[in-house]
Amino acid sequence: MGGAAEVAEERPVEELDLYRVDGDRLYVYSRQGVLSVVDVSVPTAPRLIDALPVEGRAGELFTQDGNVVLVIEERTTQCEELVEWQNQSQQSEVASVMFRDNALELGQRYCLPGEVIGSRLVGNILYVVTHDWEQTWVVAFDATAADNLTVIDVIVLNEAAHEIHVTAETLFVAQETNTYSSEFQGWYPTTRLTYIDIKNPAGDMVQRGSITLAGAPQGKFHLDATDTHFRIVTFDSNMWASLLHVIDITEPDSLTLLGSSEPIGYGEQLYATRFVDDRAYVVTFRRTDPLWVIDLSDPTSPHIIGELMVPGWSDFIFPRGDQLITVGHGDGGTGVAVSAFNVAEPANPTLINRIEFGDWNTQSEANEDYRAAQIYEPGQLADTTHAVLAMPMSWEDYSGESVRCMSYVQMVELGEDGVTAKGGIDQSGAVRRTLAVNGELYSISDVGLLSVDARNLDELAVSAGLDFPGTENRGCEFYYMGDFGEFADGGMFFCSASNGHPGMALISAFALVAWMRRRRR
What is the pTM of this model? Predict the structure, then answer.
């Protein structure tokens, strides 16, 4: 894998998101399926230029020369037949949108089989990975010109993908499989890791080697790659514990397992993981939240060197020097928690402090999507002298005759002494993201955005706001979810700003348990 640094510099890896700033324009793809373009040349006075409804559940976007490419995560009437995909069920799409003369116009639409697992823009090539129950598709688009997308290459893998990890040279696909053990006379969960060579800047891909590992794959931060090694944390539901594996990838056609850790957290579900140089930080949970510190300096012998027990659990970990900032839930899984840990001594991690917001009916988009928890360095927001974490929140208000779902953004100051709760700002619609625009804080919800003066973190002030046309504040709406299908009764209520459904959720008790067990961090 020689020359990786040069290739990475020439072909940056970009993860797509719900918004993109391109010069003085902000593009926002609302969860309600409306693409808006906003003039932010005056940050305190954002101005809507145009908006375009696009059929299908909103996924993510990127921009190229002012034009937009959308990843749509839903079946659309545009793609009812898929002859080019051998009649596979279409469940997603890539669409181009032209922005000319201050107007948005829908262009080409490419139908894709299966559901979207992930997408990355590497140089001028857009890689989209989709799956159904039996197969995985890796599709490479030439995105040199957003108004002329071209499919360059497609690789089809047996078995469904669960997560991807992408570098400038390689696209790793982690598939959830089951392997029969003659020793134990039964099936057990495994991960098939496949190496796909994407070094060719023109977009041609080469499928290389694969390897099967014990335990099922989890989310984005449970996977990590260096120039020579791939590290992954899996969860084994048979022994109800987690495993960390290190694989030698210097010979892509012959991936080799170098070492695996001892089982991590017997009897506990795997939640957060973060790799930092030769360490891994892993969070599991049953009744307390163990933070495990794992030494990776010897790839043949990854081993636990530190452990700390605290209440609640962490969904995502954000390393900051000798500190870890985590976002998760409070004691017993209630409320939203932000914690600061000191890991200067890996064998003796300590909790600096912890803040909990709300109670059982409080949720955050940041519990489901790490991109909703945004850290701003000193100076990014006006005159702030400390780093600041902005957190979208939602909660249920029972004070009136009917239940209302409320949304706001909570600010948390980060310092040597830990985390400190600051002010917040209310907003209509489920808040998905925040961003800094020339010192101003922008808060993006499903229905509009706010420009916020954050110079005084204790008393945030709204400078301006605008609504996204074609969207509505749906308030508290009912929807059904669960691994076992849809349910109409026997359920429980909770407020959720995730998965594109702001408001109330009606979930059967046993479906909720299954959902909690299947959450991927």
Answer: 0.87
- Any residues with CB less than 8 A from the CB of 151 and at least 6 apart, and which? 110, 139, 140, 141, 142
**Structural tokens at position 269:** 């579900």
Q: Which two tokens mark 159?
A: 């078995």
Mean pLDDT of the chain: 86
How far is residue 166's CA from residue 260's CA, in Å, rounded to a whole number? 22
* Residue whose structure tokens are 């600010």: 411
- E strands, 277-383, are 279-285, 289-295, 303-310, 313-320, 323-329, 336-342, 350-357, 362-363, 374-376
Total count of residues recorded for the chain = 521
The DSSP element (H or E) to which 195 belongs, if any, is: strand 186-197
Q: Which domains does the chain possess?
A: 1-158 (2.40.128.630)
272 contacts 264 by C-beta, under 8 angstroms? no
Show the tokens assigned to 255. 């991936």
- Evaluate if residue 493 carries a pLDDT over 70: no
- Alpha carbon 399 to its chain centroid, in Å, reads 33
Neighbouring C-beta atoms of residue 173, cutoff 10 Å: 27
From the list 392, 369, 405, 396, the residue with the least C-alpha distance to 499 is: 369
How far is the CA of 228 from the CAs of 149, 249, 251, 294, in angstroms? 33, 5, 9, 19
Query: Could you give the CA distance from residue 140 to residue 171 in angstroms, rounded to a whole number?
Result: 11
Report pLDDT digits (tens) over 330-349: 887 789 999 999 999 999 99
Give the pLDDT confidence of 306-315 residue by residue, as tens digits.
Answer: 999 988 889 9
**How many Cβ atoms from other residues are within 10 Å of residue 459's Cβ?**
11
Cα separations (Å) of 240 from 235, 237, 266, 269, 397? 7, 4, 6, 7, 37
Only one residue has tokens 């919800």, namely: 445
Contacts of 317 (CB under 8 A, 6+ apart): 221, 272, 273, 274, 281, 283, 324, 325, 326
In order of 40, 97, 206, 407, 443, the CA distances from 431 in angstroms are 19, 24, 40, 6, 7
Q: Give the number of other CB atoms < 10 A from CB of residue 502.
A: 29
